[in-house]
Design brief:
mainly beta; three-stranded antiparallel beta sheet; 11 strands; about 50% strand; globular
Length: about 150
Amino acid sequence: MVQIATERPFNLESEEVSLPQGAVECGVENNLWLPPEDVSGRAVARITDKARELNFTDDVSINDLGYSQPHAQMRGKVSLAATQVLSIADGTEQGTKIVQAQIQVMVPHPCFPAPLPIMGFRRSRPAQGLAPTMEFDYTNDGWRLEKFIH
């Protein structure tokens, strides 16, 4: 079912993604964001218009309490990749399924040779290492990814 999510671009509504440290350094070198600066005990790399063109919508947070890797928010039409389905259950409405799966955003830029993992939510906060939960709806065209659940 998750392969359906990867068949066509999906419109993300403000999802958090994890970034490897190398992508942060590459992003600075390629003017995707400014060099990190200290803001209230954590480092923040301010995004530029080049990063916004890649659907990054918030500054990159580094050394953020509770996060082992840098992370940033993305929004807009993106291509997704999926690696593993963890669970599938019937949704609350007829013709819906709730799916938890490891799913990533493919970013078309050399700084991101591997897709960026989308974070799941725990206690209303993004959590690295937790697979996101999604709702799939059945339509006349078959199953389609409707939304990420927080």
